[in-house]
Amino acid sequence: MRVAVIPGDGIGKEVIAQAVKVLKAVSNKYNFSINFKEALLGGAAIDVTGVPLPNETIEICKNSDGILLGAVGGPKWDKLPGNIRPEAGLLGIRKELGVFANLRPAILFSELKVASNLKEEVLGDGLNIMIVRELIGGAYFGEKKRIGDKAWDTIAYSVPEIERVTVKAFEIARKRAGKLTLVDKANVLESSRLWREVVNRIAEDFKDVQLSYMYVDNAAMQLIRDPKQFDVILTENMFGDILSDEASMLTGSLGMLPSASLGEGNVGLYEPIHGSAPDIAGQDKANPIAAIMSAAMMLRYSFNNEEAANDIEKAVARVIERGYRSLDIMEAKMKVVGTEEMGNLIANEVSKFQIFKKI
Ligand code: IPM
Ligand code: MG
Q1: Which amino acids does the record list as binding substrate (predicted)?
Q2: Would you tell me which of 4, 66, 211, 274 could form a disulfide with 254, CB atoms 3.0–4.6 Å apart?
């Protein structure tokens, strides 16, 4: 297995080191080898090469089976023009790899109910929402310009762009609770009306999935009012960016949410949904769980190794059960641990199952 490792900036470096550690533990256990290759992206790449997405990084990614990415960005590069900011590197690599479907699962661990901002009765017996965000179209990639005192961005989508991510979302919904909600702004935006038409047509092939529509403003409210009504949410790039941050807080912290970005083949890009958090970078304070869970998603989606993916997820659950918490999910009577120690605990837990298995 060839894995490209892109730590990026800020806490990206710290959390990715933990994810790599856990991947090594799981590969030892199952006796497969992973060939890790590091690549530069974002501010780290700008500092060395002058651009946020060097060609060498594209090469390394395209010659890998899975890509594990931390986060990009920071105040140091905030004044650069848009096209050479760290974020342009992130958008660029997603585009280069053609990963149009970004899967962002929001799952609440029962022990973390207290960390969630919602009341216990709203959370019920837990939460499990999958946001499928279109990742390489819409406003983030449409024509943008600035002329004098005017500036604009464009939300543009073609039928094939909507089709491919919609099929993925239906397939995912079919394997889950069988409910898909298209979130859009079809009462105002023409691109949203096209989304509805296309999704409606594709629904004919997925009669076993219950399809509903919701305007994005209402969806933002419903996620807080009654998140349990959702199973799979399908939405365009910008709405998905916003709603996935919102959904992460339902699960206790932005530091808990992993993501997988998939295209036509098996090669995928795996990254925590949180950013580079410059305010806590380099202090061993970041929660590595989102990055570690992203590594689990890589094993599942790019390497078809469900067993190893489950092991990592179980190890995370177990460490939380045992009362260990990173700062972002800390609560009274729990044991607070730093980034590094959280990684060690999870890696050890992964290896532990092996001992039980052998006995
Ligand atoms: C995310 C991030 C990125 C995005 C930024 C850093 C460009 O917010 O992955 O959600 O908007 O996609
Ligand atoms: Mg975001």
Answers
A1: 94, 104, 133, 217
A2: 274
| Residue at which a domain ends, from 250, 267, 295 | 250
Give, to the nearest 10 degrees, the angle between helix 55-62 and helix 86-97. 40
Give 21-63 pLDDT, tens digit per residue: 999 999 999 999 999 999 999 999 999 999 999 999 999 999 9
What number is the average pLDDT over the span 282-289?
A: 98
CB-CB neighbours of 6 under 10 Å: 28
The predicted-structure confidence for 89-106, as pLDDT tens digits, reads as follows 999 999 999 999 999 999
- Beta-carbon contacts of residue 154 (< 8 Å; ≥ 6 apart): 139, 142, 143, 144
Ligand 1 atom at minimal distance to the Cα of residue 140: 11
- Does residue 131 have its Cβ closer than 6 Å to ligand 1? no
Q: In this structure, are 154 and 79 located in the same domain?
A: no
Residue 162 sits in the same domain as residue 56 = no
Q: How many domains does the chain have?
A: 2
pLDDT tens digits along 249-271: 898 889 999 999 999 987 899 99
Instruction: Indicate if 62 belongs to the active site.
Output: no
Is residue 245 annotated as part of the catalytic site, yes or no? yes
Of 190, 222, 250, which residue sits at a domain end?
250
Residues 46 and 4 in one domain: yes
The answer to whether 81 is annotated as binding is yes
In degrees to the nearest 10, what's the CA dihedral of 297, 302, 306, 310?
Answer: -20
Asked, for residue 111, whether it belongs to a domain, the answer is: no
Task: State the catalytic residue, choosing from 13, 29, 113, 140.
Answer: 140
Ligand nearest to the CA of 238: 1
- Domain membership flag for residue 109: no
Output the CA 130–ligand 1 centroid distance in Å. Answer: 17
- Asked if 183 and 199 count as a contact pair (C-beta separation under 8 A), the reply is no
Ligand 1 atom closest to 237 (CA):
12
Q: Are residues 234 and 127 in the same domain?
A: yes
Whether ligand 1 lies within 6 angstroms of the CB of 236 is answered as no
Q: Which residue, judged by its Cα, is nearest atom 10 of ligand 1?
A: 241
Residue 241 pLDDT > 90 = yes
Output the pTM of the full model.
Answer: 0.94
Range of the domain at 182: 117-250
Q: Are residues 82 and 153 in the same domain?
A: no
Give 229's DSSP letter: G
Distance of CA 13 from the midpoint of ligand 2 (Å): 18
Task: Take atom 7 of ligand 1 and give the residue whose Cα is closest.
Answer: 87
